[in-house]
Amino acid sequence: MTEKKGAVIKGIILKVKDIMTKGVKTIAYNKSIKEAAENMLKEKVSLLLVVDGSNKPIGVVTRKDIAFRVIRKSESPEDVMVAVIMSAPVSTINENLSAVELGKFFGEKKYKRLLVENDNGELAGIVSTTDMLKAVANNKI
Amino acid sequence: MRVKDIMSKDVKTCKLDDKISDVSREMTKYGISMLVVVEKDTPVGVITKSDVATRVVGEGKEPNDVKVRDVYSAPIRKIYAMSTIELFANKLHARNLRNMVVFDEDEKMVGVCGTTDILKLVAEGKYV
């Protein structure tokens, strides 16, 4: 039982900010989803933050959004703008949330990743089930 | 285009009694999101990153104490190698999945396939 308690404590002490990836890759709203797909593979990410002409975030586009949209609608990926398939508004969580709370949230909302905000409401990074898996693999949880 | 044209033939597996800490290391090592759970050479389900995040970490469990059998997803998520990728994408979408296990017409497991494989197709301009 002591061991189990230890695990719970580790998961509560460990915060989102300890496991997240800092910074988020962006793409302009008027780029094609083919370009978005190329960027995702090059940067090894599954989400891009969509920004408007003044670099302000207006949504997100994910690997899943692109894969499903293109194949199911039989559209040419060069002809579809990122803005057409992006999701908005963007859900975020606070960087001081615990790993256990994050895991619960992923389960309830069926999310695979979330954008992270600091206490000042600024975008700090992104956290995913991959980051969680790495934390488990490295004995942090 | 068929699932067999874009799938990965290298299937990584684990057993029901493997520890979550060990399968997490395995998935991280290979940079993959899912392992196929095999019992007596038969695929019985999958264990995914989401299973670890939500059913182990999210429930405050110790990854060293939890086994694959306690948290894996079953039954197996099956798609056939000869299925079109349109059917595949529709199945993924309808079931809110990212990956499925590929079988041939003799019900033999031959690969795994997911949204990343479709993304590659889009990025390489092979799907028009």
UniProtKB/TrEMBL annotation, chain A:
Residues 20-78, 86-141 form the CBS domain. InterPro entries: CBS_dom, CBS_dom_sf, Diverse_CBS-Domain. SUPFAM superfamilies: CBS-domain pair. The keyword Secreted does not apply. Keywords: CBS domain. The keyword GTP-binding does not apply. Gene3D superfamilies: CBS-domain (3.10.580.10). Pfam families: CBS (PF00571). SMART domains: CBS. This is CBS domain-containing protein. It comes from Candidatus Altarchaeum hamiconexum.
From TrEMBL, chain B:
Keywords: CBS domain. SUPFAM superfamilies: CBS-domain pair. Residues 7-66 form the CBS domain. The keyword Hydrolase does not apply. It holds the Pfam family CBS. InterPro entries: CBS_dom, CBS_dom_sf, Diverse_CBS-Domain. PANTHER family: CBS DOMAIN-CONTAINING PROTEIN CBSX3, MITOCHONDRIAL, OS02G0818000 PROTEIN. This is CBS domain-containing protein. It comes from Candidatus Altarchaeum hamiconexum. The lineage of its organism: Archaea, Candidatus Altarchaeota, Candidatus Altiarchaeia, Candidatus Altarchaeales, Candidatus Altarchaeaceae.
